[in-house]
Amino acid sequence: MSPxxxxxxxxxxxxxxxxxxxxxxxxxxxxxxGLAAARGLADAQVRITLIDRRNHHLFQPLLYxxxxxxxxxxxxxTPIRSLVADQANVRVLLGEVVDITDTAVVLxxxxxxxxxxxxxxxxxxxxxFGHDEWELHAPGLKTxxxxxxxxRRTLSAFEGAERTDDRAERDACLTFVVVxxxxxxxxxxGAIAEIAFRTMTREFRTIDSSxxxxxxxxxxxxxxxxxxxxxxxxxxxxxxxxxxEVRLGEMVTAVDERGVExxxxxxxxxxxxxxxGNEASPLAARLDAPTDRAGRVEVGPDLSVPGRPDxxxxxxxxxxxxxxRVVPGVAQGAIQGGSHVASAxxxxxxxxxxxxxxxxxxxxLATIGRSSAVGVVAGRQLSGWIxxxxxxxxxxxxxxxxxxxxxxxxxWTWNYLTYRRAxxxxxxxxxxxxxxxxxxxxx
Length: 443
Description:
Elements: E1 23-28, H1 32-40, E2 46-52, E3 56-58, H2 63-67, E4 77-79, H3 80-83, E5 90-94, E6 97-100, E7 104-107, E8 112-114, E9 117-120, E10 124-126, H4 144-163, H5 167-173, E11 175-179, H6 183-199, E12 213-218, H7 229-242, E13 244-248, E14 252-256, E15 259-262, E16 265-268, E17 271-274, E18 278-280, E19 297-298, E20 304-305, E21 308-313, E22 318-319, E23 321-322, E24 325-326, H8 331-350, E25 364-369, E26 372-377, E27 380-383, H9 385-398, H10 402-418
Parallel strand pairs: 1-2, 1-9, 2-5, 9-21, 11-12, 11-17, 12-13, 19-22
Antiparallel strand pairs: 3-4, 6-7, 7-8, 10-18, 14-15, 15-16, 20-21, 23-24, 25-26, 26-27
């Protein structure tokens, strides 16, 4: 059998105006950090290969809106090629990096791409704390596919409740459990509550959707634990006002098709959403570098891997420290990291000293529901309507193109004025449980 092909981009060598071979920068990941690095090198005499296993850039902070039928996937996703179409020194490859050698990245088809500089911006995956089998019954929220699956399960639960005559099954269908009290969990719980208690209250004839239960489980003593305690307490009150049942200090011990087992007992639920943990991309383990408990690479002051000045790690994959504080895994951290890496590469190419990464904290915001949010902006703690307006404005501004901004603005305005979520489509197979006691006669 012939060996697997190995691709070296020798034939693609390009030269600058002086006839010298350009340095090759390989960027893994087309998210906020990867795009910022590529754009920071737009005018540099380098070749860039941008690799991602999906062909689109995803505005992940609004992914929960797709999962809860507020937005279409295309509203928050843009083809990567279109974003760098005017940048002649960028080549985009659709593929998955599965290994890293001293001089090349290896793709899932066995091909290898050599680099002079490597920028890893592959993000994070879900962490189930050693119980990966829970993912089947409690999907997390990282990709469009995840969001569509959560949307399917959530909307199908109401349909299942409408069909059944069995009271216990109906109650289970109308119970929604969100695991994790971080921003994703809080946002998901608030949005599901709006669907149940506002959007769908007049659409069923057998059930009352407002009788649903939305339960948020958090293992610590407060939600949004990275926020100031006063804002955590405000978020807790706002969740209660929306009808969300928050259980603090309650740990999940098992998840299956029947629901959730916790340290306080069982919860029968047909829809469980996981937002309790993240871990760095498996690529971090391929670097033979020190990592933290979440698998993030402990990078140096210039965001390079210790002992590997040609390899940088940014965004959620990196355990970076600036001014004595760990840089948070948010979009701004990734964007600033990508821009910094571009500056470091330019410094190497010109023989200058590399700058040290300095993270500029522009604040943090978390939405809870309609007119409900908390955040810290310019050192000021905000909550309620004013925080929600700040969150709304910031997210519109940072959407990557004008079309996305316009579509999201129209959808949000419509949702706000009418309480309707126009993207309530169940896609994929819906498989109701068909026991003799749980299916309405004649259906």
